[in-house]
């Protein structure tokens, strides 16, 4: 039985939430989550395979691997019911595939063929805390792919596929199906689904203020007193806002 | 969806299988599994908390934790539906509780109170790849407990309870509900359920032969030629068997 | 400059705080700290060298090592101003020596001679996230000593002594001079100094309630509903209290 | 008390030392330090964030973090006396900021705003054994930045700022304020301050000889006998020098 | 005595084996090895220093380092009989230098001078599970070099050269002299020498089939039923082959 | 080819060297080695399996394992020429078996049968940086055995036997055949063979002086000025020696 079902069955996100979240950085979102008491939301391990394709935001569709057991991780298992191939067909479009590979970097979680099929199924991005294989081919597919290195071996070299759409851990972070996942050059973070709408506005305001801070620091101001702002800084900020964010 | 359900829904074990498996060592069982192509069956991490209470064999009842997320790992979660407390009430008697703690040793997976309740529920042993807390109290309960050290913090210090009776990993080994789990001074191993009956006889024969080997080596014989045995050694073995296993 | 000075210059502890804290377990204190939002207080690494001498509570006196640099970690350095030997003479009685060894287990942080001197200086216990050397001799001194294994090499085999009574990390936990440190079979935890008085009562009440829980569970009650207690359980608890904690 | 103060209060460097050290590689300097018995001078972890901005040499200004404790690592702490912001204002121009992040890669030690302020304050480079955040923005600042990956979370996600200009460890190497720090494609090394002047000449001579070696090896000579040179090789070297280092 | 000599003294490879192996990916070869029961053939650690020079296949010539012991890892040792310099002169042309550096990344296994000499000696590639130094110079040499990062220190900073052409481990994989080693963007794998000829045809057929699969998936086919292929898929494949592999 | 042969073919040890080394601690020997510039001589990993049987000194006989490759680590390999069984028959009496298991703790390097045979062959002790199996049986044999934990699997579960009496690493320390190896409660250290005779006297004198130091510290003296001793302390020491080491 899964104990965390309640958390992932939240109502729909507001229509513009994902688009707006996609305009802010994971660093900004991270700070907003920390302000709400959430520190364990940054994945360790997954990095963009192609740094020019690192930006994404979307709802998680989860996949789960377990450590290799030779009787389970057979070539036959690729064609059996409950295989990764079947799981991919079950994934709706516009999802981020998030894969719990138990941090195993000695085999490729996926290769070019399955990643290509994911793109065809409308996936927005693929995130794994394991490695990928055929990375030249994977890059050619053109999806944002985050992983922890490359390995030639197929997944059954070190892993067994164990299921999908349950709660998982990826890069040390717990992810529930439907949570919002965001990535960029700083890596991948997880936003609990029920917080996504709430975070948008605060994140946008934070970035507006940080544009002001960068503008001031670029002109020689110390950060002390400016960010977090004291009363004087806040007044200058309001003036800067009224002036239409000059030179930002 | 779980992909490995088929493997754990095997028929009943033969009535004497568990008793007879309990008379051989995990080292012996390990060798028999290796002969059948299974190398990934020894858990790394779990050790007996009390070396005088390290011997057990039984069918696995699985529990699963995920990494802490502050919104999920709350004090309230202890009393919610789907808690570890509820899972324990769901466990039939004569099971081995096997806990996937993601190898997290910075908090105690369980403490004396829940281990005591497990004993009351008829558990045969408890295995976790995380730490335990209240270890003085846990030892006092008297169950065989295997874990990776001690930690004062409660489980929500670093983990979130995520469910039970699904496929898990413990100490790097995949365990399905109903698999046979065995422990002793060499640690804990997993026997795929469908292999348990088959293993009994071969394991007993191996231990009989090894008693002969130890007897011979104790009298000065080299191991070379003796184990694995050449033709001469096999003949001496047969004579020794006919003689009723003298001095073994 | 140290940034955390303000936190360690708190007023005196109440006279009975340390004695009363010494009667509860680190598991209990850990839970009380977690209720106050503190999860990073359990050290990873330090374990009692002698399990029969694992219980202590006291105010921290901190020592700090850095990684070996061959020009600094010389035999001469043992006799120079600012050596560990001088630092020990600076330690008032009734303190717990807490040593930041950067988790280096390839040399002994201290050996029997310095530990003996610490006992003579009135130290209550010694905690290091590195190893100890001469562990037979160290055990003979009779102080509670917590460390991460044994190593024959002297400290300058892999470390350089860097100072004392500043903020340190030990076992991954930040410790300020004057913080309260407590140890037992579950390892070592840190209580921020300003919280020590406040924790005493809550910890005692928690242990009283857990005696009741163990009593009930020992008689067959499930933990669900009992701990955390629902209304019924609270009423039974009050009755049990009124009856003078029978059979606990 | 710091025990290593004496080592960092050396006299001024010769005026051209830093410029000349900037013309040799860290590999060369490493060899010269090893010849003087110093092996523990190469940092593990820090790599250039931008490989085209990896070359720097300068005097260290040190910063120190400790592991997160939730009561110390608050948002308020950013604005308190003793904050990182204040420390940066205390840093003289033409220094290399060297940051002890305890190897914590689960949060960003610094982001674009503070790195920009450091550039404004005249910093030559920034070195941390933790991660950076806002790495796109950090790259845009244009300073040489060495770190161990990227992480979206702010520093208080996993660290607490603890002070500046004391002895620290970075990447497993002990660094004292004023030590000379040098970086390039091979990473970052530390030169004890009192050795910097002495190293310059030897390093320059080593690189001259290695140009000769590369020239000879490029023309088919084996390295055996050439480097380290036997008598014949030394004579050829002198001739090559006299000829004005042809074709090097 | 070496116990594995028999395995590396196999007959010559077929003349076109290496050329044809060089046309398939390590991912393909990995799958063929797994089909023959070999999972432990992918090295962890070595990555291409220069991603544009990552493709190679050749017979291994092995080198072996051990951990530093200060009496063995002296500057003198560079010129002594049995040095790395001598070993390089012993290497026939058209070999891949495979170096067991015990995974030590705190020093450079080799630098630009020795790598240049290896190229002059006809080496096809260099693989180490340690770091390299002078990496700018190493890149300039132009050989495919696979290693685990960069470090300024010379090899005797942390290692001792121990011999050549014996059995070694590199990146956790056992390599015998004469085994076939192959590298590309997925890293480095080892093909037991006696299997190299046998693998060629199967690998080529696998890649032909995968071109068909990518073609089908690119046109919208699910992978389920296609790879591994069911009867229908096999028929479509045969038609596609008869048609001359259209649009692949 | 092995490069380190010269170091292990030293002349015989003085007849009483091993006996006298057996009377001092590894902590003392470690300090003497450090005084001679040797820091990398303490093994990380091996601990006494039975703390009451931890004391030994003897000349090393080396064994070497490599990581599992499924074609080499077969059950057949146990009976082939070059097996561990053959190597044991090649070991002269009064040696310490030192085993390079590459730090692999996922299988047992040896079990009770081979350890029993080693005892019969006159081995003084067994040291491995891997695990042991059948540890109950191993303990019963009665030899000092140092290893890094227990594991049920046979060696071919994760390792391949690769040879004997060559240079190896064990616990991160380079060991040549014939080096002197010593163990006690602080673990295992290696003394280069050519230094063993030289170390004896210095070690004995050090322990004499440390008995004096412990005597003084036990009577209330600070360590500062006493060890290392200033002139006054040396004079008191000489008096104490003249008085026949009272109360030590």
- CATH 2nd-level architecture of the largest domain in chain A: 3-Layer(bba) Sandwich
Radius of gyration of chain A: 20 Å
How much strand content do the residues of chain A show? 15-25%
Secondary-structure element order of chain A, N to C: HHHEEHEHEHEEEEEEHH
Tally of structural domains of chain A? 2
CATH class group of the largest domain in chain A: Alpha Beta
Structural class of chain A: alpha/beta
Q: Which word captures the global form of chain A?
A: elongated
Mean pLDDT of chain A: 96
* Helical coverage of chain A, percent range: 25-40%
Oligomer: homohexamer
Brief summary of the model shown:
By secondary structure, the first copy, chain A, is α/β, with parallel strands linked by helices. Chain A contains 8 helices and 10 strands.
What would you say this structure looks like, in words?
Six copies of one chain form a homohexamer. By secondary structure, chain A is α/β, with parallel strands linked by helices. Chain A folds into two domains: 5-198, Glucose Oxidase, domain 1, CATH 3.50.30; 199-242, no CATH class. Chain A contains eight helices and ten strands. Chain A has helices spanning 5-8, 17-21, 26-35, 84-89, 112-120, 135-141, 196-218, 231-242; strands at 47-48, 56-67, 95-100, 125-128, 145-147, 159-164, 168-170, 173-175, 180-184, 187-191. In chain A, strands 1, 2, 3, 4, 5, 6, 9 and 10 form an eight-stranded mixed beta sheet that branches. In chain A, strands 7-8 form a two-stranded antiparallel ribbon. In chain A, strand 9 and strand 10 (187-191) form a beta hairpin. Chain A is elongated and about 70 Å long. The mean pLDDT of chain A is 96. Chain E binds chain F through residues 1-7, 37-41, 66-72, 80-83, 87, 90, 102, 160-169, 172-174, 190, 192, 195, and chain F through 1-7, 37-41, 66-72, 80-83, 87, 90, 102, 160-169, 172-174, 190, 192, 195.
